[in-house]
Design a protein that fits this description.
Structural class: alpha+beta
Low-confidence stretches: none
Mean pLDDT: 91
Radius of gyration: 27 Å
Helix content: 10-25%
Number of helices: 2
Length: about 260
């Protein structure tokens, strides 16, 4: 009887985690370039009461096994790196990656993290930075007298300088890609860190083979589908209720057994 309660409890814990993940996806539906997560589950080890192919007392071999499962457990939280919708902002410092690739973001300690969020700003030193003030890598500096900034599909950054007719090259945006982007670690602030599972980054120029193109004046939106998440929430809620009903049924059965002793 305790196995029944424990098995149902694993189902309730798993569905609670599943709903927590849905809540996080929905909370980030308007987060720039957010990538939704999906919780994946595995069934737990089985108790083998009879093994398929074993012989019985009559000397014949049983064709099927007799196994009892012990519930479920969460196996992984998988990031889904499908392309989000590209929306126009008309801000010249907003850039979206249309395709494969991450921006390289330099941290104060020198570590390079990676992001799909291209809502860049200009710091007091003229550098392109994120909303948290982290510099884009390679560093690109905008002159004080720049009157128009253009960013090409290949990541080339140019500016028109006040009083000059020729444009000035300011630098080149580079992108990074990973063999297994789902293996990247989430650190918050729209940033990812490489792990052993993700592999080392491959650096390349936007719009080159294997890399996405840069879209100036656009931002990538979250790839969360609200309707899909709501459907998943209803399904997980029903699964949680069913598992709680199993716990109640097990408790009723224990009450009946205890009453038989009187």
């Amino acid at each position: 009887m305790s196995r029944l309660l424990n098995t149902a409890a694993t189902g309730m814990r798993s569905m609670q985690l599943y709903i927590d993940n849905i809540a996080n996806n929905l909370a980030n539906v308007n987060t720039t370039a957010y990538k939704k997560s999906r919780i994946e589950f595995q069934d737990l080890i089985y108790q083998n009461m009879r093994i398929a192919g074993s012989s019985n007392l009559q000397g014949t071999f049983v064709p099927t096994s007799l196994q009892v499962g012990n519930g479920t457990r969460p196996a992984s939280s998988n990031k889904i790196f499908t392309q989000g919708e590209i929306t126009q902002t008309n801000n010249p410092l907003d850039v979206a990656v249309n395709g494969v690739g991450f921006f390289q973001i330099n941290q104060p300690d020198g570590q390079i993290l990676y992001s799909r969020d291209g809502s860049f700003k200009i710091s007091d030193q003229g550098s392109l930075v994120t909303s948290d003030g982290f510099e884009l890598e390679p560093q690109i500096t905008i002159p004080d007298d720049a009157v128009e900034i253009s960013i090409g599909a290949d990541g080339t950054v140019q500016a028109k300088i006040f009083g000059q007719t020729d444009v000035q090259d300011l630098g080149q945006i580079e992108l990074a890609k990973f063999l297994n982007p789902a293996g990247l670690g989430n650190v918050g602030k729209n940033l990812y860190e490489p792990t052993f599972a993700s592999g080392d980054p491959a650096i390349g120029q936007p719009n080159a083979e294997g890399f996405g193109r840069i879209e100036q004046g656009f931002l990538e939106t979250s790839n969360v589908e609200v309707v899909e998440e709501l459907i998943n929430m209803i399904q997980s809620q029903r699964a949680f209720e069913i598992n709680s009903r199993v716990v109640q049924t097990g408790d009723d059965m224990l009450t009946t057994v205890n009453g038989m002793r009187r």
